[in-house]
């Protein structure tokens, strides 16, 4: 395990016990938690993007703010729903954010997941072309976005206002290397192979929209293996990145047990159910004493196959609690996976 970061869903709302009662709370606390994570020696601060919900919806202002407050930690998304995106505007925003960060943006994108809005992307002005599905539209947006990020010309120049320039103009600004830091959030083995063929890194979460009857970690490890095989067959000239997400809740003190003690009884095994009419497998949560969690994660086939682990955080419990939880993971869990802290924490 080369890198460990946190993944926040950015929930907010005026509910009992919440430390993130407003959207402003969620944004500012996301920045503060990223700063704390960097001080702990963690490697990444990632945020889930959801629309029409009390969660993070517009990631680039948040990621740029984190980039300006940090110097080493990766900043990223897990994931952006490409059905909703204007590919060229997104390419401009992503490039600007990456330039502010000094090349630390890791951009997870995907076809998207079930959402509270019916036809939400249509409200943003995006509908599939005739004969397309929502997934086709997301992939079309992805292709346009990746071409723009790579510097391809996308619109005819008007020589009257372009200093005599003719031909196709690329979007500006452009950030070199960003195209190699785009990840596809794959929910199946087939989409993982597709991402590998196109040269995108693999981002796999605690949900797979297929089920073969084997434990979640084994199915996900098979997905990763197929991704790596397809990457090698495609002949890309670099090593791919692979991340997996896990719910990791160490019970190190009474506060932890008060919040999550019962979760150890409820969530310690895989779940299988229908999602949008498709049989899906959900990964278990890792809840318990830190040494027991460390042993379980070390035996997780997919965690061992990936180079990056993203641990989800209960962001509504506030920065102080989540920083304490991340410190427990960094100190008592992650070393068993072969991980070592970086930056200031590595020198103390």
In short:
By secondary structure, the chain is α/β, with parallel strands linked by helices.
- Indicate the percent of residues in helices: 25-40%
Which sequence of strands runs across the widest sheet? Answer: 1-2-3-4-7-8-10-14
Taking the sheet with the most strands, its summary is: 8 strands, parallel, barrel
Question: Which structural class should the secondary elements be placed in?
Answer: alpha/beta
Strand content: 15-25%
Beta strands, count: 14
C-alpha Rg, in Å?
20 Å
- Number of helical runs? 13
What general form does the structure show? globular
- Run of helices and strands: EHEHEHEHHEEEHEEHEHHEEEHHEHH
Low-confidence stretches: none
Distance between the termini: 21 Å
Mean pLDDT: 94
Please explain how this structure is put together.
By secondary structure, the protein is of the alpha/beta class. 39% of the residues lie in helices and 19% in strands. The chain is built from 13 helices and 14 strands. The protein has helices spanning 23-39, 59-69, 87-101, 120-123, 134-149, 189-198, 216-234, 254-260, 263-266, 290-298, 301-305, 319-333, 344-347; strands at residues 3-8, 44-47, 74-81, 105-110, 155-156, 168-169, 182-185, 201-204, 207-208, 242-250, 271-275, 278-282, 286-288, 308-313. It has an eight-stranded parallel beta barrel, surrounded by seven helices. It has a three-stranded antiparallel β-sheet with strand order 9-12-11, covered by helices on one side. Strands 5-6 form a two-stranded antiparallel ribbon. Helix 2 packs parallel to helix 3 (87-101), helix 3 crosses helix 5 (134-149) and helix 6 runs parallel beside helix 7. The longest helix has 19 residues, at 216-234. The radius of gyration is 20 Å and the shape is globular. The two termini are 21 Å apart.
